[in-house]
C-alpha cells in the first residue's frame, strides 16, 4: 500500500490535535491575560512569574554620552560600547566584541568567571578610540544583560536564583550578580561600574523604544521564548506601594511557563516527559525554536514505524532526539521545487532518511502543522498581553508596536505569517491595523547600554 494511505490517519489526528481555530486562540489569549493578572497580585500567584524589572524610565532619544553593555546569556559574552548624540545625532558610533567562555570556567568558581569577564571588559575598554568620549571625572557605566533566573531587587542589583544552560559555577547562587561583577571590576582596578541589570527582553524593548515611542511590548522567539511589556504601577498589587515617577514599569512575564488551554498532542507529552524540565515551560515547548523540529521528528518517527512512511525499515538515526532541528524544518518549507529535492536531501542529511515524493509532501504537511500551531499560539499570547494592557489603560484605539527578536521569528517566514494571522483574526481588521508587529534585530545590546544611560548615576 502507498505510504500516503498508511500514514493518513496519523496526519489527520495530528492536524486535529494541533488545530487552533478562533475559539482556542481566544481561550489562550484570555487565559494569558488572566494568568498575568494573578502573577501581578502576589509572587507565586500564577505560572507566570511577572518579574518586576525596576525599569521605570525608557529611552527617549535624548540620551547623550558614552555607555557600555555586557551581555552574558550563554557560552559567549558580548561587550559593546555606544556613543549617543541625542535626538539630532542618535547613535554616533558603536563597536562590539564577542568572547567565548572557556568550558572549565562554566564549572569553576564565581570569582574565576567574573574575573574572566572583567578582564574581557578591560581589554575591550582599552581599545576605546577617537569616536568615543567619556567626560572627565566619570566612570564608565555598563548595562548588564544577564539571561539567567534572577530575583531583581533594584535597577542595579539582583540575586541569582540558579544557573541554567549548562553553567554550574559555584558560589554565585543567592548572591547579587551586579556586586559580583563590580567586585571583579575593582580587582582589575577598572574604572567601570554597572548602572542597570536587565533581562534580554527588557533590553529589546528599550532598544526598540529608542527609535519608536509606541513600542510597548517585546517578544523573543529564538531557542526559547519570553515577553515583557509596559505596565501601570497601579495594576501591580505585589509592588506594595513602591513608586515610580512615570507611573509605569516594565514587567518581564517569563511567559514560557504558561500552560493554560494549549492544544497538545501525544508527541508533546512524550517530549516533555523525557525533558530535563518535565512539566515546566509548556508554552515554550510548543512555540519556540528549540522544540519545533523535535516535535516534527517524533511525528515522523511514528509515521515511519506505524505507517512505513520511509519504506519497510525505520531509519535508525530518526530515533535520536533533536537530530531534526527547527532550521531544517524551516528550510524544507522553503523548497518550491517540483520534486522537493531540498526536502529529500535535508531529510537524508539530518536523519538518514530516504524519501519518495509522496513522503516528502507529507513531511511538509507535518512541518506546516507544527509551525502553524506554534505561530498562532505565539500570536494569541501577544494578544493576551495587549488585552491585559488595554484593560488598564486603553491602547486599542492607538498605534502600539510589538518589538520582535530571535532567530525563529527572523528566519521562519511561514511561522511569522501564522503569528500575524492569529493576531489579525483575534483583534479584527480595524484594531489590528493599529498593532504593529516589528522585527527589531539585536536591539537588546544597545538597549542595555541605553538603560545604563537612562539610569545613569550622574543624572
Ligand atoms: P538564542 O535564542 O539562542 O539566544 P537566536 O535568537 O539567534 O538565539 O535564536 C536561535 C534559534 O533560532 C535557534 O535555536 C533556532 O531554533 C532558531 N532558528 C535559527 N535559524 C532558523 C531558521 N533558519 N529557521 C527557523 N528557526 C531558526
Automatic annotation (TrEMBL):
InterPro entries: ATPase_NBD, Hexokinase, Hexokinase_C, Hexokinase_N
Biological-process GO terms, alphabetical: glycolytic process
Pathway: Carbohydrate degradation; glycolysis; D-glyceraldehyde 3-phosphate and glycerone phosphate from D-glucose: step 1/4; Carbohydrate metabolism; hexose metabolism
Record's GO cellular component terms: mitochondrion
Every Hexokinase C-terminal domain range: 217-453
GO MF annotations, alphabetized: ATP binding; hexokinase activity
Keywords: ATP-binding, Glycolysis, Kinase, Nucleotide-binding, Transferase
UniProt-listed Enzyme Commission number(s): 2.7.1.-
PROSITE patterns cross-referenced by the UniProt entry: HEXOKINASE_2
Pfam families registered for this protein in UniProt: Hexokinase_1 (PF00349), Hexokinase_2 (PF03727)
UniProt keyword Transferase present: yes
Domain Hexokinase N-terminal residue range list: 11-210
Top-level taxon of origin: Eukaryota
Top enzyme category: transferase
SUPFAM superfamilies (UniProt xref): Actin-like ATPase domain
Membrane-spanning residues: none
UniProt similarity note: Belongs to the hexokinase family.
Protein name: Phosphotransferase
Amino acid at each position: 500500500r502507498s505510504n500516503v494511505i498508511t500514514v493518513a490517519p496519523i496526519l489527520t489526528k495530528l492536524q486535529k490535535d494541533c488545530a487552533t481555530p478562533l475559539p482556542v486562540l481566544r481561550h489562550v489569549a484570555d487565559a494569558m491575560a488572566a494568568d498575568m493578572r494573578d502573577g501581578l497580585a502576589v509572587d507565586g500567584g500564577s505560572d507566570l512569574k511577572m518579574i518586576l524589572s525596576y525599569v521605570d524610565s525608557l529611552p527617549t532619544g535624548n540620551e547623550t554620552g558614552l555607555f557600555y553593555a555586557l551581555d552574558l546569556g550563554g557560552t559567549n559574552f558580548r561587550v559593546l560600547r555606544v556613543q549617543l548624540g541625542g535626538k539630532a545625532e542618535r547613535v554616533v558610533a558603536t563597536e562590539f566584541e564577542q568572547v567565548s567562555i572557556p568550558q572549565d570556567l562554566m564549572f569553576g568558581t564565581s570569582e574565576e568567571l567574573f574575573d574572566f569577564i572583567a578582564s574581557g571588559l578591560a581589554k575591550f575598554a582599552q581599545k576605546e578610540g577617537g569616536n568615543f568620549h567619556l567626560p572627565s571625572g566619570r566612570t564608565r557605566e555598563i548595562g548588564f544583560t544577564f539571561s539567567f533566573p534572577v530575583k531583581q531587587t533594584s535597577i542595579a542589583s539582583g540575586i541569582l536564583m540558579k544557573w541554567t544552560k549548562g553553567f554550574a559555577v559555584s558560589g554565585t547562587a543567592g548572591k547579587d550578580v551586579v556586586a559580583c561583577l563590580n567586585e571583579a571590576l575593582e580587582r582589575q582596578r577598572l574604572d567601570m561600574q554597572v548602572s542597570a541589570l536587565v533581562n534580554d527582553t527588557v533590553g529589546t524593548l528599550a532598544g526598540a523604544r529608542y527609535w519608536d515611542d509606541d513600542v510597548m511590548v517585546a517578544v523573543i522567539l529564538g531557542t526559547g521564548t519570553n515577553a515583557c511589556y509596559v505596565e501601570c504601577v497601579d495594576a501591580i498589587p505585589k509592588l506594595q506601594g513602591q513608586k515610580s515617577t512615570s507611573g509605569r514599569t516594565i514587567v518581564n512575564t517569563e511567559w514560557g511557563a504558561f500552560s493554560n488551554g494549549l492544544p497538545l498532542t501525544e508527541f508533546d507529552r512524550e517530549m516533555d516527559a523525557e525533558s530535563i524540565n518535565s512539566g515546566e515551560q509548556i508554552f515554550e515547548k510548543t512555540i519556540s525554536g528549540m522544540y519545533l523540529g523535535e516535535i516534527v521528528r517524533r511525528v515522523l518517527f511514528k509515521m515511519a514505524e506505524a505507517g512505513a512512511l520511509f519504506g519497510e525499515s525505520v531509519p535508525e538515526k530518526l530515533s535520536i532526539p533533536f537530530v531534526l532541528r527547527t532550521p531544517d524544518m524551516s528550510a524544507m518549507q522553503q523548497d518550491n521545487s517540483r520534486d522537493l529535492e531540498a526536502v529529500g536531501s535535508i531529510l537524508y542529511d539530518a536523519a538518514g532518511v530516504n524519501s519518495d515524493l509522496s513522503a516528502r509532501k507529507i513531511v511538509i504537511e507535518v512541518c506546516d502543522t507544527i509551525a502553524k500551531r506554534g505561530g498562532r499560539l505565539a500570536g494569541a499570547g501577544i494578544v493576551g498581553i495587549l488585552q491585559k494592557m488595554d484593560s488598564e489603560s486603553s491602547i486599542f484605539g492607538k498605534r502600539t508596536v510589538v518589538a520582535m527578536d530571535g532567530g525563529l521569528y527572523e528566519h521562519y517566514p511561514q511561522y511569522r505569517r501564522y503569528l500575524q494571522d492569529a493576531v489579525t483574526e483575534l483583534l479584527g481588521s480595524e484594531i489590528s491595523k493599529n498593532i504593529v508587529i516589528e522585527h527589531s534585530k539585536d536591539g537588546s545590546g544597545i538597549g542595555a547600554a541605553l538603560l545604563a544611560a537612562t539610569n545613569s548615576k550622574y543624572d
